[in-house]
Amino acid sequence: MKKLMTALALIAAAGTVLAQATPVGLWKTIDDETKTEKSYVRITEAGGVLTGKVEKIADPTKQDSKCEKCSDERKDKPVLGMTIVRNARADADKVHWEGGEILDPNNGKVYRLRLKPVDGGKAMEVRGYIGPFFRNQQWIRVE
User: Fold this and answer.
1) Could you tell me whether strands 37-46 and 123-130 are parallel, antiparallel, or unpaired per DSSP bridges?
2) CA distance 23 to 113
3) Domain, as residue range, for 30
4) What is the pLDDT of residues 43-96, one digit of tens each?
5) Quick count: other Cβ atoms within 10 Å of Cβ 88?
6) Which of 14, 26, 48, 126 could, after both became Cys, cross-link 143 (CB 3.0–4.6 A)?
């Protein structure tokens, strides 16, 4: 009986680790240039598609900032609460999520997107592409 309980506990722990190895959750974004905390983004999944919204802005002086440089329906809308990750889907092995886009509200640019959880899901490599050029950020899981 003790061996059965131990086995069940290990299976449950493995399931928790696998669940954390997805982009779904709350993430602290880190600026790729200054290495400072920028915001908190909550990524959710519905029907196999990921969406990410800005839940908190780290700099108190930027709480009311708007996406002045955006060129789509987000132009001049508040960054707080804004959807910045859209339409990402898992690859066949669920190693990374791609095919969607990510918006940088600071410059209004929309990049093709790849999300890759690393370090057992404690961090995530976020890569935005425009043509052959890309930017990387390392986000830290909050929950």
Assistant:
1) unpaired
2) 12
3) 2-141
4) 999 999 999 999 999 999 999 999 999 999 999 999 999 999 999 999 988 889
5) 24
6) 26
CB distance 37 to 54 below 8 Å: no
Kindly report the number of other CB atoms within 10 A of residue 18's CB atom.
12
Listed in sequence order, the residues at least 6 apart from 90 whose beta carbon sits closer than 8 Å to its beta carbon are: 22, 48, 96, 97
Which carries the bigger pLDDT value, residue 68 or residue 35?
Answer: 68
CA–centroid distance for 142 within its chain: 11
What end-to-end distance do the CA atoms of the chain give, in Å?
A: 34
Distance separating alpha carbons of residues 140 and 124, to the nearest angstrom: 6
- 95, β-bridge pairs: none
Nearest to 101 by CA among 126, 133, 123: 126
Check pLDDT > 70 for residue 16: no
How many domains in the chain?
Answer: 1
CATH classification of the domain holding 27: 2.40.128.520
Query: Which positions ≥6 away from 96 have C-beta within 8 Å?
Result: 90, 114, 115, 116
What pLDDT is stored for residue 19 in this prediction? Answer: 43
